[in-house]
Design brief:
Elements lengths: L6 E4 L9 H16 L3 E4 L11 H13 L23 H13 L3 E4 L2 E4 L6 E5 L3 E5 L7 E4 L4 E4 L5 E3 L7 H11 L4 E5 L6 H11 L5 E5 L2 E3 L14 H6 L4 H9 L14 H7 L10 E3 L1 H13 L3 H8 L8 H5 L11 H9 L7 H8 L2 H15 L6 H14 L5 H12 L7 H8 L1 H15 L4
Parallel strand pairs: 1-2, 10-11, 12-13
Antiparallel strand pairs: 3-4, 4-9, 5-6, 7-8
Helix pairs in contact: 1-8, 4-5, 7-9, 14-16, 14-18, 15-17, 16-18
């Protein structure tokens, strides 16, 4: 079925998890289709039977769903262009192989089928990398001559079908793009060297090639190549760490694309509106996990309390909604909630050494906190506003600023020097526990008090 619509695709191999690079490829194709009111196709390139796993396939599909990258056609959304698993398309590939055989463009070699590369140059234009020209007949797989001890050129005619009858990536990739009417292919720059082979196949089959755009690579912050073992490399990691999908989508979009202004936080709708080839970068991107965390923190802070609780509750099963609400201003990703809450919920939380050291050098601070705890012990009702007023009044009687009491009070009540809003935190801890903690920690910090 021919179509004049913009049609892009993401074609992962189910040999591992969905990583940031793959997610960016999917996202850019999805964005370009959405920007042009087109269609985004998902197909699974599962011809590598030895490495494919159902678990990897499920993880890729779940990762795309989590990122809200819905596909118009693909697994679960079958159409006349399916099936969308290459392992189920053998008859389609056989049909196209027959066309090449009839045109004398392939031949057998030890049971495999090779494609006769053209003698003339293969030319195509890449929307990012510019015009490309290569002569495939002068290239080929490198081979090692054991007798001569040198590397030599091997046959430039590349294999499209293995001796066991299964087809290889180059051939099935092209056939599926033809059959699924793919108009634009956005993929990583590492595929640029494959494209002349694909264009040669398109030409041999007498079908127009799609428009190509090869996206520069994603590197680590230090310029090294990003590895699947690096923190933040897999999309599942973000889900497990409590990142918001919309913030991850936002950050990944900025790895190779720019709105051409200073904005870093953009809604998906804003990115769709601006996304085109002119906004794609021509240089490699640097992946900065800390920046990704910061951006996610911006998204978290913008949630309403109700939205925050809905997302946060699965990450803190032992705390009440009131307590969890305290963490929102300090959270960058939701898996931090338990760590932030521990000084609040744990009466025996160890006192931070550096924090206690800051106040232990001044016995007068300890005396003030001890005196303040006596006042707090009789405070009723025990609510944040009353606690704040009591501390403020006490500071007034001592002719000091309330800020001079906040740090030592926090250290004595929670064991740490930084944390959630102090007065609501003390309300959550409770009067009895707060006073008991203060006395116990003062005894440890000031042995003479």
């Amino acid at each position: 079925m021919e179509s004049s619509k913009i049609r892009t695709r993401f074609a992962p191999s189910p040999t591992g998890y969905l990583h940031v690079g793959g997610a960016r490829t999917a996202l850019f194709n999805w964005l370009y289709a959405k920007h042009n009111d087109g269609e985004f196709i998902l197909r699974i390139e599962d011809t590598d039977h030895e490495r494919n796993t159902d678990e990897s396939c499920d993880e890729i599909l779940n990762g795309l769903k989590w990122l809200n990258l819905d596909w118009d056609e693909g697994p679960g959304k079958e159409s006349g262009d399916g099936p969308f698993y290459q392992s189920q398309r053998q008859s389609v590939y056989e049909e196209y192989l027959k066309r090449l055989e009839d045109s004398d463009l392939v031949y057998e070699d030890n049971g495999a089928i090779r494609f006769k590369v053209p003698i003339s140059d293969v030319e195509f234009h890449d929307e990012i990398c510019g015009p490309q020209t290569i002569n495939l007949s002068t290239t080929g797989n490198r081979a090692w001559d054991k007798e001569k001890g040198i590397e030599i050129e091997a046959n430039p005619d590349f294999i499209i079908r293995r001796p066991d009858g299964t087809f290889l990536f180059h051939f099935v990739n092209v056939i599926d793009d033809i059959e699924m009417n793919i108009s634009h292919v956005l993929r990583g720059e590492d595929h640029l060297s494959n494209t002349p082979k694909h264009v040669a196949l398109f030409n041999a089959i007498k079908c127009p090639a799609p428009i190509f755009a090869h996206i520069p690579l994603i590197l680590n912050e230090d310029g090294s190549k990003m590895s699947k073992r690096d923190a933040g490399a897999g999309i599942e990691w973000y889900k497990n760490e409590g990142f918001l999908a919309e913030s991850v989508t936002n950050y990944i979009a900025l790895l190779g694309w720019s709105p051409k202004d200073d904005r870093e936080k953009l809604t998906t709708s804003e990115i769709i509106e601006l996304f085109d080839f002119d906004h794609l970068n021509k240089s490699n991107s640097r992946f900065d996990l800390n920046k990704c965390k910061w951006l996610n923190g911006q998204y978290v802070s913008d949630l309403t309390e109700e939205e925050y609780l809905e997302r946060a509750l699965p990450f803190s099963s032992n705390a009440s909604e009131q307590v969890i609400s305290l963490t929102q201003p300090r959270v960058q990703h939701l898996s931090e909630i338990e760590k932030i809450l521990e000084p609040i919920l744990n009466d025996n939380y160890p006192t931070d050494y550096d924090a206690s050291l800051k106040i232990s050098t001044d016995p007068e601070i300890g005396e003030r906190i001890k005196e303040l705890s006596t006042i707090l012990e009789s405070l009723d009702p025990w609510v944040a506003e009353n606690i704040k007023n009591a501390v403020k009044d006490f500071a007034g009687t001592k002719q000091i600023k309330i800020g001079a009491l906040m740090f030592p009070l926090r250290v004595c009540a929670t064991g740490v020097g930084q944390g959630t809003d102090l007065m609501p935190t003390l309300e959550t801890i409770g009067r009895v526990a707060t006073v008991a903690r203060i006395k116990e920690r003062l005894d440890k910090i000031y042995t003479n008090i």
